[in-house]
Amino acid sequence: MQPMTRWAMTGALLTATLAGPLSEPAHSAPASLYAPSSLVMTTGHGEKAAITAPERAVTVNCAYTTTGTHPDPRQACADLDRVNGDLDRLATLRGNETGRPCTKEYRPIVVTVEGVWRGTRVNYEHTFANPCIKQTQGASAFAF
Which of 27, 53, 85, 132 is the most exposed place for a label (fewest CB within 10 A)? Predict the structure, then answer.
């Protein structure tokens, strides 16, 4: 076997440098075809989602780019990030910091959240005593 010339070694080194390691693909594709954080949120008057007709539904996609039909998808995603996806904490995130008084009437409104949050399936339901409490105690993610 003949020793490599200086030009042959330079060419081999340049080829290896430009090609990069063989174990990494030229482009990286997502690990899944589905968005890691994509949710559908609904609201309707009633005590349980199973017996309540949804009156409003919005979508929130917190992956790669923030999108959705939610009135403020960026804030909704920020709320979800702040509680690390803990929807029980999200339901009482604000605790009426608005100072707005609410009546004691019982007119239940149920909020549901379904989809995927950071790769974990979500199926959540929370009932607020009335719409005012939903607006003042729930995070802005529930303001739709």
Answer: 27
Instruction: Tell me how crowded residue 67 is: count the other CB atoms within 10 A of its CB.
Output: 16
- Average pLDDT of the segment spanning 34-46: 88
Least confident segment among 11-15, 48-52, 93-97, 117-121: 11-15
Extended strands (E) in 16-66: 37-45, 56-61
Distance (Å, whole) CA 36 – CA 55: 26
Tell me how far apart the terminal alpha carbons of the chain are, to the nearest angstrom.
75
Residue 44 amino acid letter: G
Task: Tell me if 143 sits within 8 A of 135, measured CB to CB.
Answer: yes
Q: So what's the pLDDT on residue 34?
A: 60
Q: What are 115's strand-pairing partners?
A: 39, 122
Residues 34, 47: Cα–Cα separation, whole Å:
32
Instruction: Give the three-state DSSP class for 85.
Output: coil
